[in-house]
TrEMBL record:
CDD domains, A to Z: DnaJ
PROSITE patterns: DNAJ_2, NERD
Domain (NERD): residue spans on this chain: 147-258
Positions of the J domain: 9-70
Alphabetized Pfam families for the sequence: DnaJ
Name of the featured protein: Nuclease-like protein
InterPro entries: Diphthamide-biosynth_chaperone (IPR052276), DnaJ_domain (IPR001623), J_dom_sf (IPR036869), NERD (IPR011528)
Top-level division of the source organism's lineage: Bacteria
Positions of the UniProt region annotated as Disordered: 67-105
Comp. bias (Low complexity): 68-80
Length: 311
């Protein structure tokens, strides 16, 4: 149960309303343990989720902290604070970082705030658009925008550590977008290991691979890799460059493994990557993907700089 606007609340996992008494909550926990226990034919993943939910709300102290939007464990910050756009943390070393351009997660956050205000309604005060109770009560499409903003910001923090040999562009405008999808590519990363198009995603659940694309209960028929390939193609044409890798980046818990190769699209290797594995994959390169070096690297960077427009 990673900390996502799309994650089920502990009350939802236990199958009760948030306002139930402590005794009713305890009974629900015991009931769900029996239902989900692997020894009685239950699902091990659901059994683990029930136990994690109980840690969050199983005592009066933990429950009060969770209901306020935080966690009683290890003095964790409130979800509201974590979901708010955070300033860059001060650097602890002097090593050069990757050249970065654009505003990661900016479009998704801006759209989230607009739709949240519309959903709350005119004339109502919205003191904290990231209040956990408010976020959990909002329609899924609004929560998904916030989840994706957080995912894009997390990816940006990861790729910033790659070093001066890499250049990164965030929230790049594109002429290709699927139904209901923003006309942008989340990230472009260029370095000696290749030219990569990255899409940061959080669907609030696990995804699997089928026939070169992703499937999962939370996807609702979307074709993420197909959409990413279309966006990358439009940018490749405009900049006269060729992507060597296309990657969808998801929270570690959402992927079957930290790196899953899906196949190829127009010569580019396609992959599903867990968030924490991303820097290593970009430094080492995707298996089978072409590398870019020497004057070609400089030429590709120059073309992208001239062609890229930000959303």
């Amino acid at each position: 149960m990673h900390d996502s606007p799309l994650s089920a609340s502990p009350y939802e996992v236990l199958g009760v309303a948030a306002g139930v008494s402590d005794e009713e909550l305890r009974k629900a926990y015991r009931r769900m343990l029996r239902v989900t226990h692997p020894d009685t034919g239950g699902d091990p993943a659901r059994f683990d989720a029930v136990q994690r939910a109980w840690v969050l709300v199983g005592t009066s102290t933990a429950r009060a902290a969770y209901d306020r939007g935080g966690s009683a464990r290890n003095g964790a910050a409130s979800a509201s604070h974590v979901w708010t756009a955070q300033p860059s943390a001060p650097r602890r070393d002097s090593r050069p970082t990757a050249r970065s351009h654009g505003h990661p997660g900016g479009w998704s956050r801006e759209r989230y705030l607009v739709l949240m205000r519309e959903w709350v309604g005119r004339g109502r005060t919205l003191s904290d658009p990231y209040d956990p109770a408010l976020v959990r009560s909002a329609p899924r499409d609004i929560r998904h925008l916030l989840a994706n903003a957080l995912a894009e910001e997390a990816t940006a923090r990861q790729v910033a550590t790659l070093g001066i040999g890499f250049s990164v562009w965030h929230d790049v405008a594109t002429t290709a977008a699927g139904p209901g999808l923003p006309p942008k590519l989340d990230h472009i990363v260029l370095g000696p290991t290749g030219l990569f198009a990255l899409q940061s995603e959080d669907w609030g659940g696990e995804v699997r691979i089928k026939r070169g694309d992703l499937i999962g209960e939370a996807l609702a028929g979307e074709r993420p890799m197909n959409d990413l390939a279309a966006r990358a193609k439009s940018i490749a044409r405009a900049a006269k460059v060729k992507f060597t890798g296309l990657m969808i980046v998801v929270p570690d818990a959402a992927a079957p493994s930290s790196l899953e190769l899906l196949g190829k699209s127009r010569g580019a290797v396609t992959a599903l990557v867990g968030q924490s594995r991303l820097p290593g994959v970009l430094r080492d390169g995707l298996p089978g993907a072409a590398r870019i070096g020497g004057t070609e690297l400089f030429e590709v960077r120059t073309r992208l700089q001239a062609a890229v427009k930000f959303l």
